[in-house]
Amino acid sequence: MHRHVRISEQVLRQLLERLPAGLQRLAICPAGLSRSPQRQEWLGHTLHRPPPSGPGPRILIALAAEPGLLPARLAAARAEAAADEPVACLALGTGSAAGTIAGMAVTGAEAYPIDRLTLVGPGFPEVGLTLLPAGRESAPAADLQCNRAPPIKQPPSPTLAIWSRTIGALGETPWRRLTDLRVAIVGCGRSGSVAALALVRLGVRHLFLVDPDTLEPHNLGEAAIGSLMDLGRTKVAALADHLRAQSLRDDLTLGPVPHSILALPALAAVKAADVLFSCVDNPAARLATAHLATLYLRPLFDIGTGIFHAGDPAASGRRLGADVRLVLPGRCLSCLGGVAASPEARAALVPEVAPPSSPRRAWHDERSGSLLSLNALAVHLAVRLLEDFLGGRVAGSTWLHLEFNPAGLPSIEQRRSPARPACPGCALTALGDAGLQRLPDWWSSQ
């Protein structure tokens, strides 16, 4: 069993601001839990001091001014752990111990190692931790910079040689972080297949592919999926074969999930992923994906394109564009531009209130068409956001709007959407498994 802590960068910043010298230096952060057979993960987003009342999973955070104090500070945090609740204890070094960190997971009288700590914020750092048993005077602490790779030396390895120009543009640390990410792509048709191929060609090694649909003739023209021989296959199976053929690595791992985002196999993929790409063209699936990203503290890259015209496609009234949104803790997709047809999308997610199903409509009854050129532009804007998020340049939730004017010339603007103090979508942040049972009530009541 692996034990991880995933915590918003905002928590760490607030911790350092709220724990001045001279105090006990112990903060309690309520946490959600994400459980799977292989992993238990604590999800922390809101830092409360004084401690919140009532039982529940917690992240206890102590500060140590010297490296040798890390075990004692962990012991102090463990002493505050409730006997019947899963608690993650972290000791962060300050002063001469700055850059060191250690941790343990406590359940009752048992303590276990915490394997990883992920900070959800600029750079998206992830570090390994070491269990420090109580009473031990000193122990090596994990370096917060331990995920930094050594500088490239000539001649580079074959793998580094393949991506040497990408590394030269991004830096080796962001590129290595990128290639280590586990990415779940929800919707593997036109935009989703382009996103998957772009990430694989960047060197990403782990992809989950989530889509319940099978390939029809109209799916092939604007996608990076396959050939006429793939008609009738699931999109994720055909895409997986195409990606294996296009990969430049021999350690590529793919997890095809031929199910809806609402199915348990898709939920397992979300939990196992580090980031989500939402490339769906269905508002209900977009809303569900966004809420799962919020519940499990996953950065969400939401990609949507649209072509609208009446009658002749060459008419001057045509509108063509895309919205690309990076959603980080503190915002949700609902308050960062929203979801088209949101009331209908929520109703479709609740069987008790959903309207009776109607025969499936032809694609041209629902949309004006699709362009590979437009989908690729939107996808690569999202990939650029991911690259600069990992490089620490993109520091917060970001909404990019791409639009072509009547003369066919593009423009990109960064749109603003004021945060809502009582946003019900944001209230789902980091609730984890406990929040799943709230989703039907949320969808039916909003």
Instruction: Assign an overall shape.
Output: globular
- The figure for the number of domains is 2
Q: Which structural category fits the helices and strands?
A: alpha/beta
CATH class of the largest domain: Alpha Beta
CATH architecture of the largest domain: 3-Layer(aba) Sandwich
The CA-CA distance between the termini, in Å, is 38 Å
Low-confidence stretches: 48-52, 131-155, 352-356
The H-level CATH homologous superfamily of the largest domain, spelled out, is NAD(P)-binding Rossmann-like Domain
**How much of the sequence is in beta strands?**
15-25%
* SS elements, strand count: 18
Count up the helices: 14
Largest sheet: 10 strands, mixed
Mean pLDDT figure: 83
Radius of gyration: 23 Å
What does this molecule look like?
The structure is a single chain. Helix 6 crosses helix 12. The strands form two sheets. Strands 1, 2, 3, 4, 5, 6, 7, 8, 9 and 10 form a ten-stranded mixed β-sheet that branches. Strands 13-12-11-14-15-16-17-18 form an eight-stranded mixed β-sheet, sandwiched between helices. It is built from 14 helices and 18 strands. The protein folds into two domains: 2-143, Cytidine Deaminase, domain 2 (3-Layer(aba) Sandwich), CATH 3.40.140; 181-445, Rossmann fold (3-Layer(aba) Sandwich). The longest helix has 19 residues, at 372-390. The protein is globular, with a radius of gyration of 23 Å. By secondary structure, it is an alpha/beta fold.
